[in-house]
Amino acid sequence: MKKHALITLLVLLPVLASAQSSAQNGKVVGVVGKVVVISLDGFPANALDDPKLPIPTLRKLMAEGTGGPMLAINPTITWPNHTTIVTGVGADTHGLLLNGAIVRTGTWPPVKVDSTVDKVKLVKVPTVYDAAHQAGLTTAQVDWVAIKDAPTINWAFPEQATATGPLEKEMLAKGVVSAADMTDFSKANIIFRDQIWTKAAAYIIREHKPDLMLFHLLTLDSTQHKYGPGSLAAQDAIAFLDSCVAQIVAAVNDAGLSGDTTFLIVSDHGFKAFKKEIRANNALEAAGLDKKVYVLPEGGAGFVYIEDPSVTAKARDVLSAIEGVEHVYSPADYAALGLPRPDQDPQFGQLFITAKTDYSFAGTKGGPVTAEVTQTGGSHAYLASDPELHPIFIASGKGVRRGVSLGLVVNLNVAPTIANLLGISLPTAKGKPLPLQ
Fold first, then answer.
1. Whole-angstrom Cα distance, residue 371 to residue 83?
2. What is the pLDDT of residues 62-71, one digit of tens each?
3. Could you tell me how far CA 105 lies from the centroid of its own chain?
4. Biggest distance spanned by C-alpha atoms of the chain
5. For the stretch 325-362, what's the b/e string if a residue is b when 16 or more beta carbons lie within 10 angstroms of its beta carbon?
């Protein structure tokens, strides 16, 4: 990027008035500061309304900066929203619709989700970490998503960590983790893995001091799926995550970077409790539409794949009549939801269905189409406009004015904000930098 283009950007978007940076020959000169992005998967913004919620670290960060609700994109699922957070575009543009690529099976069911696809094949637009790397900055990720083997990440501790990974080997050699920690790591309980991921993020910050750190924790999401949002188990998980954030803040302090670092604490989506599950494929089978129409269930939503176009009207009628189905959307409705039509992205289905409050789509075979569950659980993928699905946004540290009011933050604006904090440009983003000063 040429020098005059960056100067023009900063004049037009004076989000951080103190930012003094320029670019020359693709390198950043006078970086604004370092950015640590921490994603607490599934953290609902409405949880912050509880003054007794045990989150002293997050409360302190909010008091020193700002915090509140954020508007997710549809579908309110982990990988699509994490990808928006680093690209500044929606699912209709970046290509992530579920937690991986949706691929054809050549059999039944007709589609499956492949989470092993490399980032360069999975994400269709530039990310903020791509832009940072191109500008000569250093980047790191711990358990981020849609980022497998990304060539623009300098230090990576992946979700599927193994003892043979470069960073894992470095940490093993220094005694930060043990060989036992790395044995069958992907099968360990989620709390243990979050602990190890926290150690990894803290280690990278202390030892390598990346300009951009992307860090993702999963305990709360797993807990709320099983026990529901607002449960004692969910509150306990939130307290645990607060302690993990505290370790990252301590690592930044230990590295001597506290005056030069901005913390962005985000989540990908909120949660809704459900008491009944919808087995939509059972209804389709009963109507004689098995092997013709398939619903890929995703909690609050279902992706509908119609293999025989002649039965589309019948499929719509069957799905609309199911107890707990709120709405059946056609491709003509997708643009308003920020979703791609099948002719724009063949990953997406010919219909999109959403569940009512207290209901969640499931893949259970047999039995009644709609059934009570034995224990209240939690789901997401309901429409992003539902306040219960609003995730959190907290900003604190360098470049953030204490008490700045942002209202409902749109998550399309996070990636441009990260870019602005780093003094780089992300021209493909549709969002705008947040006014943090």
1. 34
2. 999 999 999 9
3. 26
4. 66
5. beebbebeebeebbbbbeeebebbbbbbbbbbeebbbb
